[in-house]
Amino acid sequence: MMTTVAFDGHTMAADTLATDAWGMKEEVRDKILRGPDFLAGTAGHNGAIKAWWAQVCQLDLEHVLAYGYPDFDAGRNDPAIMLADASGRIWRHVTGGFFPCSRGFHAVGSGRDYALAAMALGKTAEEAVRLAMAFDNGTGGDVVLEELPA
Question: Which DSSP helix (H) or strand (E) runs through 50?
Answer without folding.
Answer: helix 46-56
